[in-house]
UniProtKB/TrEMBL annotation:
Alphabetized UniProt keyword annotations: Signal
Protein name, per record: L-ascorbate oxidase
All residue ranges annotated as the Plastocyanin-like domain in the record: 38-151, 164-300, 381-518
SUPFAM superfamilies, alphabetized: Cupredoxins (SSF49503)
């Protein structure tokens, strides 16, 4: 619920007492208030009753709609029987990693308690999503879409669509999330998913209605756990317009690969004879192909569209690589501000540091684990950011993961990489495994400058796109391949770098990047929120005086 009445004004005064500094910084930007109750409930996504995680009795959870620079005040009541956190994939939490909602930044909400997230969609537009970050809860639901619209005075490089639809696509297991967690805790790998969902529904379980001749925006996010997906619309093409906060060159595709954690916006024009058409989603790079469908329903439909369902790519890597390379930044379009996106020449900024990150799937102490540069992450008893703020020793050490792979024996460690505020880094993700990887970095958008098969070397830079590579927050790395990104370290905080393959993340394929400055200025980082929950070795401490 968005607030604008007297009750909302009283709430605003209350929250101003909780976090006075960011509210002062935010100035007159609007506030949107949400109250969410998280519960277990029965869901039937694949026709079998399961225990799902609901938000306000909804699966998937409620849509968040905001405008650039809006303040989001989200009060989350945890009615589950275990601690819970939500994270906001793609929202950059500028200067405020305390609100990121992952285990390394934020104390969990205990059962029966609540916590109010106080965030701002600062200088952002685009398509994002939220999800539960702890305890493999994501396998039970609790996720939903986020759309951040441009301010009215900012030009958008396409006419307003007739409607703006969200399509949350993902693989799904019939097993309870606690059973899946037990499998992983036992040191075993998860099996193959049981099916695919579109907006929490199985085959033909969800319908999008369109009017003939109108154009619609579809925001597509892969919220699944294990597999890359391909989406296509029977009899229709898609015009790509936005990727994770970046306006793109408006290329037309007949089908689109969406890797784990990624978001795309496409325009679809209802320009075909009036029938019900299939929206088909299928798995990529899997020996067994799962698929599902939703319905694109013309308002004056004469029934089911004739003809077969459109086929899609299955195991072809080159096809996907070429499509990924074709996605380009729109240099002349405005982003969240009126100046053109291309006014920032990312390819001309000198790189100050190169970081190479290699994933692996080691066995440690007889159990399946996953690692980055031979380190398999284990969570400490206190969030890293909270321990850092209070200078609590013994929780983590900076420098516990190397800048380059050693290819040595893997080991368990609370891995934190140090980095300096305002450095400009090149990060190379190196994948020597036979499965596609999907990597996400909290707190940042980055430019994808290159991806190719084989091993990366310094000579690989000769093929980099230093002009119009797309800026995004989640990127794929193909089997036995590499992907390179450029990223300005302009956001102080403790930021999660993780696999979006949820079993791999859960079993250690992640670490934290501590972007640090000696400055204590509020221009660089906000202090801990007044209402922050404190746990572990920080329990019993005070947050700070008002």
């Amino acid at each position: 619920m968005a607030g604008g009445n007297g009750a909302a004004a009283r709430l605003l005064l209350y929250f101003a007492g909780l976090l006075i500094v960011p509210l002062l910084v935010a100035g007159d930007d609007p506030y949107r208030f949400f109250t969410w109750t998280v519960t277990y409930g029965d869901i039937y996504p694949l026709g079998v009753k399961q225990q799902g995680i609901l938000i306000n009795n909804q699966f998937p959870g409620p849509q968040i709609e905001a405008v650039t620079n809006d303040n989001l005040i989200i009060n989350v009541f945890n009615k589950l029987n275990e601690p819970f956190l939500l994270s906001w994939s793609g929202l950059q939490q500028r200067r405020n990693s305390f609100e990121d909602g992952v285990a390394g930044t934020t104390c969990p909400i205990p059962p029966g308690a609540n916590f109010t997230y106080i965030m701002q969609a600062k200088d952002q537009i685009g398509t994002y999503y939220y999800f539960p970050s702890l305890a493999f809860h994501k396998a039970a639901g609790g996720f939903g879409g986020i759309r951040v619209l441009s301010r009215p005075q900012i030009p958008v490089p396409f006419p307003p669509p007739a409607a703006d639809y969200t399509a949350l696509i993902g693989d799904w297991y019939r097993a309870n999330h606690t059973d899946l967690r037990y499998v992983l805790d036992s040191g075993k790998a998860l099996g193959f998913p049981d099916g695919l969902l579109i907006n929490g529904r199985g085959p033909n379980g969800y319908t999008f209605t369109v009017q003939p001749g109108k154009t619609y925006r579809f925001r597509i996010t892969n919220v699944g756990l294990a597999t890359s997906l391909n989406i296509r619309f029977q009899g229709h093409t898609m015009k790509l317009v936005e990727v994770e906060g970046s306006h793109t060159m408006q290329t037309t595709y007949s089908s689109l690969d969406v890797h784990l954690g990624q978001s795309y916006s496409v325009l679809l024009t209802a320009d075909q004879p009036a029938f019900d058409y299939a929206i088909v989603v299928s798995t990529r790079f899997t020996t067994r192909i799962l698929s599902t469908t939703a319905v694109l329903h013309y308002a004056n439909s004469a029934g089911k569209a004739p003809g077969p369902l459109p086929g899609g790519p299955t195991i072809q890597i080159d096809w996907s690589l070429n499509q990924a390379r074709s996605i380009r930044w729109n240099l002349t379009a405005s982003g969240p501000r009126p100046n053109p996106q291309g006014s920032y020449h990312y390819g001309l900024v000198p790189v100050t540091r190169t970081i190479r990150l290699a994933n692996s799937a080691p066995t440690i102490n007889g159990k399946q684990r996953y690692a980055v540069n031979s380190v398999s992450y284990v969570s400490p008893d206190t969030p890293l950011k909270v321990a850092d703020y209070y200078k609590i020793g013994g929780v983590f050490s900076v420098g516990t993961i190397a800048d380059n792979p050693s290819y040595g024996g893997a080991y368990l460690q609370t891995s934190v990489m140090g980095a300096s505020y305002r450095d400009y880094v090149e990060i190379v993700f190196e994948n020597s495994e036979d499965v596609v990887q999907s990597w996400h970095i909290d707190g940042y958008a980055f430019w994808v400058v290159g991806m190719d098969g084989g091993k990366w070397s310094a000579a690989s830079r000769q093929g980099y796109n230093l002009r119009d590579g797309v800026s995004r927050y989640t990127v794929q790395v193909y089997p036995r391949s590499w992907t390179a990104i450029y990223m300005p370290l302009d956001n102080v905080g403790m930021w999660n770098v993780r696999s979006e393959s949820w079993a791999r993340q859960y079993l250690g394929q992640q670490f934290y990047l501590r972007v640090w400055t000696p400055s204590t200025s509020l221009r660089d980082e906000f202090p801990i929120p007044k209402n922050a929950l404190l746990c572990g070795r920080a329990a019993g401490r005070r947050t700070r005086p008002l």
